[in-house]
């Protein structure tokens, strides 16, 4: 064979090599798309918000006590929306943390494998119900029931929306907390049983303290879920901006405000159009904060064992 | 310390056991509450909406009169959007999952991608709506169309499919790869003929769960500006248009549309209680779709666990 010429077999191999490289590149691009998505989110929220903050000062945005962006006398106090978001999330957590944690302890420390086989799909279905259906449930089923117990409750309220939102995040807390408790080594439990502890005593005094950062992580991640929830609030909490800390009142949240604006017909580039991006940026920053704390807590408990 | 008498020890044990039993009851009660909510929700919608479960309800467009309003444009819209979503999300999600499990080198780039996917799964869905409004609707000029909605939901469920793919691949033992490569297969041939087929049931489960989530998503679709009152269907490929022309193969992707959750939202937020009945009936239909998809996923997973023995 003269030098410089490649045998057919070798050139076939070279072809194969290039094919492989091409496929790897395509697969890499698919994986990199997720980074592009994040960059896209940040770009679109920040660039529209820059237009917004060129017109409204950031101090007014954070300190004004009124949110009337579409009125002639426009005010842009995001705290009005943040208060609705925080109050409804708090109600949701007051429901979801006790119920979710109880289910997690029960599933991880008490239930046999057969109960778990039944319980897991129930929880999954509960978490898979579309939020618009939960919204319907909150407005037309839960609110009338709560009105019997609390006659002063208006037709739209943060309380009933938050309550249903709590039911929605129970499965989330239950499954993350159960994971954390199952990660606690059996030897710790056996030690406690050997000392004569009952199951409940072991769960409360041994397993929970050992899994504490994991439990905390599940709560924090649940908060970020609640803060980002939209449809339940848009349907059942009313959409009037209302600076309040009282769950018995109707109020708009960051998310339901975005829905309200998007339902109308706002021209691209108007101040109303820009407000939803400023609101979205605020929402993203709040959820990001909770997520970072949550991930950090989860990483911490994983390292322990 | 004085040692306890036998009676006292028995009493302590009995008290501990009683508390255990009480807590067990509490745990079962909490689970039963969850089940009760699901059942109550379905029953409430089935009973309230029962008078709308006629063929007309599925074949009529939305209307000002509650009794004549139907969900034709909504369910057709939901199916078409799901079709676009699946078409975009499945190949991308599986490709990304295969890359991260089988190809990715352990370097900072891979780590960035992994952290990024974990964080994307936690981004509120309405933020995806804002992304789509800015990028798909205005910058790419897709408008308020089925294409924009389908791609938005595809981005939303991509992390679910990626994670499911990775978990399914991770469960395949290394000997499969080694065997394939030992007989001279390239990396891609190993993936194409072994890894992906064996991971298929797991991937499919993830895809179904992702689509079940997407079909119920409302917020991002409202944000990109889906209409709530649509009295026509997107043009079917190669059929005559009202203006005399013929619809192209892909004209339907740019058509305005509505989907089931938006129709429900619209009916729920009307003050006239007659529309509550419609909302209940449409909610029941949506729940039936979501439950059927979830049940299919659960069943697939169950079968998978039973059948696969390496």
TrEMBL record, chain A:
It is a multi-pass membrane protein. It holds the Pfam family BPD_transp_1. Residues 82-294 form the ABC transmembrane type-1 domain. The keyword Oxidoreductase does not apply. The chain crosses the membrane at residues 21-46, 76-107, 128-150, 156-177, 198-221, 271-293. Belongs to the binding-protein-dependent transport system permease family. CysTW subfamily. Part of the binding-protein-dependent transport system for phosphate; probably responsible for the translocation of the substrate across the membrane. This is Phosphate transport system permease protein. It comes from Propionivibrio dicarboxylicus.
Automatic annotation (TrEMBL), chain B:
The chain crosses the membrane at residues 21-47, 67-100, 120-140, 146-165, 195-215, 221-241, 248-267, 279-300. Residues 75-297 form the ABC transmembrane type-1 domain. Gene3D superfamilies: MetI-like (1.10.3720.10). Its main location: membrane. GO terms for biological process: phosphate ion transmembrane transport. The keyword Transferase does not apply. It is a multi-pass membrane protein. It is found in: Cell inner membrane; Cell membrane. It comes from the Bacteria. One of its GO terms (cellular component) is plasma membrane. Keywords: Cell membrane, Membrane, Transmembrane, Transmembrane helix, Transport. One of its GO terms (molecular function) is phosphate transmembrane transporter activity. PANTHER family: PHOSPHATE TRANSPORT SYSTEM PERMEASE PROTEIN PSTA, PHOSPHATE TRANSPORT SYSTEM PERMEASE PROTEIN PSTA-RELATED. Belongs to the binding-protein-dependent transport system permease family. CysTW subfamily. This is Phosphate transport system permease protein PstA. It comes from Propionivibrio dicarboxylicus.
């Amino acid at each position: 064979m003269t030098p410089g010429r490649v045998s057919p077999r070798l050139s076939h191999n070279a072809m194969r090599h290039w094919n492989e490289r091409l496929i790897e590149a395509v697969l890499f691009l698919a994986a990199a798309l997720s980074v592009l998505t994040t960059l896209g989110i940040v770009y679109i929220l920040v660039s529209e918000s820059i237009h917004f903050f060129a017109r409204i000062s950031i101090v007014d945005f954070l300190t004004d006590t009124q949110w009337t962006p579409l009125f002639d006398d426009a005010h842009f106090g995001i705290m009005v929306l943040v208060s609705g978001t925080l109050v409804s999330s708090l109600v949701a957590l007051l429901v979801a943390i006790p119920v979710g944690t109880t289910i997690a302890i029960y599933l991880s420390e008490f239930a046999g494998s057969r109960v778990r086989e039944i319980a897991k799909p129930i929880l999954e279905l509960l978490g898979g119900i579309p939020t618009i259906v939960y919204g319907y449930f909150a407005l037309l089923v839960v609110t009338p029931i709560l009105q019997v117990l609390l006659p002063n409750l208006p037709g739209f309220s943060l309380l009933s929306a938050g309550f249903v939102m709590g039911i929605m995040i129970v499965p989330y807390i239950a499954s993350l907390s159960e994971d954390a408790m199952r990660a606690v080594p059996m030897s710790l439990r056996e030690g406690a049983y050997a000392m004569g502890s009952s199951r409940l005593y072991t769960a409360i005094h041994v397993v929970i303290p050992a899994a504490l950062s994991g439990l905390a992580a599940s709560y924090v991640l649940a908060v970020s879920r609640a803060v980002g929830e939209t449809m339940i609030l848009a349907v059942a909490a009313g959409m009037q901006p209302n600076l309040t800390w009282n769950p018995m009142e109707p109020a708009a949240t960051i998310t339901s405000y975005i829905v309200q604006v998007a339902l109308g017909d706002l021209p691209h580039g108007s101040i109303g159009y820009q407000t939803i991006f400023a609101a979205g940026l605020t929402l993203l920053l709040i959820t990001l904060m909770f997520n970072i704390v949550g991930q950090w807590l989860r990483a911490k408990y994983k390292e322990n064992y | 310390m004085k040692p306890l008498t036998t009676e006292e020890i028995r009493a302590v044990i009995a008290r501990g056991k009683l508390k255990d039993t009480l807590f067990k009851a509490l745990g079962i009660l909490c689970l039963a509450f969850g089940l009760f909510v699901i059942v109550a929700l379905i029953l409430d919608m089935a009973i309230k909406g029962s008078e709308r479960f006629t063929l007309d309800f599925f074949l009529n467009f939305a209307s000002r009169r509650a009794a004549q309003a139907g969900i034709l444009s909504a369910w057709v819209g939901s199916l078409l959007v799901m079709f676009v979503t699946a078409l975009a999300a499945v190949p991308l999600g599986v490709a990304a999952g295969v890359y991260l499990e089988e190809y990715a080198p352990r370097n900072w780039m891979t780590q960035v991608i992994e952290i990024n996917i974990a964080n994307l799964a936690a981004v509120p869905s309405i933020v995806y709506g804002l992304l789509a409004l800015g990028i798909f609707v205005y910058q790419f000029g897709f408008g308020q169309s089925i294409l924009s909605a389908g791609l938005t939901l595809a981005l939303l469920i991509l992390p679910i499919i990626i994670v499911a793919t990775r978990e399914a691949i991770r469960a395949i033992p290394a000997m499969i790869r080694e065997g394939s490569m030992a007989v001279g297969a390239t990396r891609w041939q190993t993936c194409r003929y072994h890894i992906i087929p064996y991971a298929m049931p797991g991937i499919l489960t993830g895809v179904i769960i992702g689509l079940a989530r997407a079909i119920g998503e409302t917020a991002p679709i409202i944000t990109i500006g889906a209409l709530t009152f649509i009295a026509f269907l997107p043009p079917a490929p190669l059929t005559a248009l009202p203006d005399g022309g013929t619809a192209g193969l892909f004209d339907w992707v740019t058509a305005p549309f509505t989907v089931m959750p938006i129709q429900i939202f619209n009916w729920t937020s009307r003050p006239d209680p007659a529309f509550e009945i419609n909302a209940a009936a449409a909610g029941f239909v949506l729940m039936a779709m979501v439950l059927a998809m979830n049940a299919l996923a659960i069943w697939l997973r169950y079968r998978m666990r039973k059948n696969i023995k390496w």
